[in-house]
Each structure stands twice: as structure tokens, then as C-alpha cells.
Design a protein that fits this description.
With 394 residues, the protein is α+β, with helices and mostly antiparallel strands. The protein contains ten helices and eleven strands.
Length: 394
């Protein structure tokens, strides 16, 4: 009898995960994937190598696509489900983490802060333009010495008559050098407050950070505030204390739960295709047991991460998600995505260190994703606090 070849299935097809999505979610996923295939993939290696990306142009195109602030309602935003937004993040990060970062910072940090905590004047002035990609936003929380401990920030805002005057610096700010508006958090006599700052305001500057080995297709900047004078109306009225910026971070972390899996999927699919064609000792690399073991283990972790992401998406859509649950997703999925990217590189061998294949590029990017929006240690402590009732942060 002749041996019949078995049909080949993709890594996520093994889990039959499409059965967990509705028609709108599948349509959004398809639309974003097609945009990435046609617009981003042909250029992303060059953007990464040259550390140059047409952010303003891409922002307008992403606005036309409807993904900027897509999970927010009104003011030109699409008002999709959180799960649909997560799937969009997955497809964006499958192209490159920088693209998902652009969308995440715009929608889940800057736009979310204005939408949730801003005045109606803030919303009317900024959100429609930001949703269309006509105005780029950034989010200034992190400082050079205060990443995991934002409550220790040194940036100060003092009242001078009816005005506010801000002084300080923020570090590692995505979109900072190309933003038209910045949401900046500062210490006041009443506690930490947020401010909406047009970047054309005198005293505001955003020098770009150079010489990065990760997220090279993303604009990363320092924000410098030197006696930046703002009217009283610049204050975000709905946010007092750290709860405001932390709520924004939780939104961004949710997108990463899905997004990191996109990078892992791209690595795994590329590696599968390569290994099926690569001949070694007279047969395809995929025909060897050790290779199949690696592929099976990576597929298992990718699928488990996707099941977790979808579960968290449904919880968020139901309004039932908790911060420690977002931490579970961010901790697990970024950690496993980075492990998958590294393992794929071993199968690709020397080819894996070139930009002809995405594994090393994704691995470099995921090194940043692993630590931004909360390091692994921060998320472990958030989970630990939920389990024990004891805070180990101090």
C-alpha cells in the first residue's frame, strides 16, 4: 500500500480557534491582516534596518482602516469589541511590534486617557482627529528613574494663578517626536494629575532616542518640559492619583496580550515553511523528530496563549476583567512569544539572524515588549498580591 500524505494545518488551526470568533471579528482580523500584507510587510525589514518609518503616513492609513481607538465609542471611533481590538493588535504585531505600539499608544493610552478622563472639550478637540490619524498622540508617564515605580515621578506641575507650569522629563515615549498632542502625568500639591499638552507649546521638546537595537521601526523619544505653561483647561478633570495612568496601562497591556502572539505566529509560520523546504541529509528538515518536537511545543504554547487571550477578551467585553487577569495574559504571552521567536531562530539557523526572515527582528522587539507596560516581575507581583493579599512592591 502506498502511504498517503496527510493534510498540513497551520499552528492555530490545530486548535480550531476560528470557532470562537464571530463574523465581525473574523472580518476585522482579515482586513488588518490584508493591510499588513500589502502595506507593511514589503517595507518593514528596511524600516527596521534604517530605523526610519513613515509614521505620519501610516497613521493616516491606520485611521482610514479604523483601528485607531477602535474599541472606544463615539468621536469618530468604531466602538468595536475588546476582542476585535485584540485580534487587530495580533495582526499588527505579526507584521512588527512597532506597528502595534503605534496603534496601542495612540488608542489605548493617549486616546483612552482623553476619552475616559478628559473634558468634553478635550474629547471634541482631539479624539476625531486622532481616530482619523490626522493627529498623533503620545503618553508621558515613564521617567528615567521611575518606570516600574511611576508614583516616584519627579515631573512637577505647579499652579501660577489660573495656569499650570510643568517642569520635568519623561523617557522612552513612543511617538513623542512626531506627536501633536501629549498626555503627561505630573506631581502636584494635590497628587498626581494628567495634562493634555499640544506639543507646539513653548518649553515642550521631544528629542528622539537613537541607537536602539529593538523597536527600530518605532519612534521613541524623551519628553522635556521646561516651564511649559498651560491653561487650567489642560488638566484632565476625571483622573486623580495613580489610578488614572494605571487604568490606561491596563488598556495597553490588554492589546499586548494578543499582540505578542502575532509576533510568535509570524515566526512559527515562517519557520514551518522554511523547514519544509530545507533539505538536510537528503530529506526535509521537518521530517526529523527533534524539529517536530520543537514545532509541536511551540504550537502548543502559541495555542494556549491564544485561548487565554480570547478568554480575557470575553471577560473584558463582559466588563468583568480584573487587573491581575490582564497581568496573567501579558506575563505569559510575551514570555512565550519571546521563547518561540528564539526557538524559531535555531531552526532557521544562520538565516535566522538576517532580515530576510522575521525571527530575530521579532525577538529583538519582544525584548522591549517584555519590559514595557510592566516588567515580568511587576506582573508576577500583581498576581502574587491577588493570590496572597500581600503587597510585595515595597
Amino acid at each position: 500500500m502506498t502511504k498517503q500524505a496527510r493534510s498540513v494545518v497551520g499552528p492555530l488551526e490545530v486548535f480550531a480557534l476560528d470557532n470562537q470568533l464571530d463574523d465581525e471579528e473574523r472580518a476585522i482580523r482579515h482586513t488588518v491582516r490584508r493591510f499588513c500584507d500589502e502595506r507593511v510587510r514589503p517595507s518593514i525589514a528596511a524600516w527596521f534596518e534604517d530605523a526610519a518609518v513613515p509614521v505620519a503616513e501610516l497613521s493616516r492609513e491606520l485611521g482610514s482602516l479604523g483601528v485607531l481607538g477602535m474599541h472606544l465609542a463615539g468621536y469618530g471611533c468604531a466602538g468595536t469589541s475588546a476582542t476585535a481590538y485584540g485580534l487587530a493588535c495580533l495582526e499588527l504585531e505579526a507584521a512588527d511590534s512597532a506597528l502595534r505600539s503605534l496603534v496601542s499608544v495612540q488608542g489605548s493610552l493617549a486616546m483612552f486617557a482623553i476619552h475616559r478622563f478628559g473634558s468634553e472639550k478635550h474629547r471634541q478637540e482631539w479624539l476625531p482627529r486622532m481616530a482619523a490619524g490626522e493627529a498623533i498622540g503620545c503618553f508621558g508617564l515613564t521617567e528615567a528613574d521611575f518606570g516600574s515605580d511611576p508614583g516616584g515621578m519627579r515631573t512637577q506641575a505647579r499652579q501660577d494663578g489660573s495656569d499650570w507650569v510643568l517642569n520635568g522629563t519623561k523617557m522612552w515615549i513612543t511617538n513623542g517626536s512626531v506627536a501633536e498632542v501629549a498626555v503627561v502625568w505630573a506631581r502636584t500639591e494635590q497628587g498626581i494629575r494628567g495634562f493634555v499638552i499640544p506639543t507646539s507649546t513653548p518649553g515642550f521638546s521631544a528629542p528622539e532616542i537613537k541607537h536602539k537595537l529593538s523597536l527600530r521601526a518605532s519612534v521613541t523619544s524623551e519628553l522635556v518640559l521646561d516651564d511649559v505653561r498651560l491653561p487650567a483647561t489642560a488638566l484632565l478633570p476625571g483622573a486623580e492619583g495613580l489610578s488614572g495612568p494605571l487604568a490606561c496601562l491596563s488598556e495597553a497591556r490588554f492589546g499586548i496580550v494578543f499582540g505578542a502572539l502575532g509576533a510568535a505566529r509570524d515566526c512559527l509560520e515562517t519557520t514551518l515553511a522554511y523547514a519544509q523546504e530545507r533539505q538536510i541529509f537528503g530529506k526535509p528538515l521537518t521530517a526529523y523528530q527533534l524539529t517536530q518536537q520543537k514545532l509541536a511545543d511551540m504550537t502548543l504554547e502559541l495555542g494556549k496563549g491564544m485561548l487565554l487571550a480570547l478568554h480575557l477578551g470575553r471577560l473584558k467585553d463582559a466588563g468583568e476583567i480584573r487587573n491581575e487577569q490582564v497581568s496573567l495574559g501579558k506575563l505569559n504571552n510575551v514570555r512565550e512569544a519571546l521563547a518561540i521567536a528564539r526557538e524559531c531562530r535555531t531552526i532557521l539557523a544562520a538565516n535566522g539572524v538576517t532580515l530576510e526572515y522575521p525571527a530575530m527582528r521579532h525577538a529583538n522587539n519582544l525584548e522591549s515588549v517584555l519590559t514595557y507596560e510592566g516588567t515580568s516581575e511587576v506582573h508576577q507581583l500583581i498576581i502574587g498580591q491577588a493570590l496572597t493579599g500581600q503587597s510585595a512592591f515595597r
